[in-house]
Amino acid sequence: MTEIRKEVNTSLFLYCCTGIMLLFAVAGVRQLVLIGVHTNPRDAVKEMEALVDVHSAVKRRWNTDDILIMGDLNADCRYASDSDLRSLRLRTDRRFTWLIGDDDDTTTTKTDCAYDR
């Protein structure tokens, strides 16, 4: 992960980069990289935007397109508005697919938000 931090402006990730990146060899897939993220609620939109750069750095480092970014992105409700999400490169770039929908509730409380993706 140190090599990735050298390539990406990690000052954007004061909170989330305590996460992990794992590289697996999986049958039928040459490699699979899992990136676990927990964005800072106050900076969720900025950190999600920077994940495109993290993805690019991981792709260069491990030469794979099989990358799954997952975790608590705080990608809804008071942390990320619909207009914020619409403008994110993670949403507009066709390389990325969101597996959990905007209307899915990923919380265990009385809120109805799709924070986890």
Description:
By secondary structure, the chain is an alpha+beta fold. The protein has one domain. About 30% of the residues lie in helices and about 20% in strands. The protein has helices spanning about 1-5, 45-60, 80-85, 90, and strands at about 20-25, 30-40, 65-70. Strands 1-2-3 form a 3-stranded mixed sheet, covered by helices on one side. It is globular, with a radius of gyration of 14 Å. The two termini are about 20 Å apart. Residues about 10-20 have low confidence and may be disordered.
Properties at a glance:
19% strand, 30% helix, alpha+beta, single chain, 4 helices, three-stranded mixed sheet, 117 residues
Short description:
This protein has 117 residues and is an alpha+beta fold. Helix content is 30%, strand content 19%.
Number of helices: 4
Fraction of residues in H or I helices: 25-40%
| Rg | 14 Å
Ends distance: 21 Å
Strand arrangement across the biggest beta sheet: 1-2-3
Quaternary assembly: single chain
Elements, N to C (H/E): HEEHEHH
Q: What class would the helix/strand composition place it in?
A: alpha+beta
Low-confidence stretches: 12-18
Which whole number gives the mean pLDDT?
Answer: 80
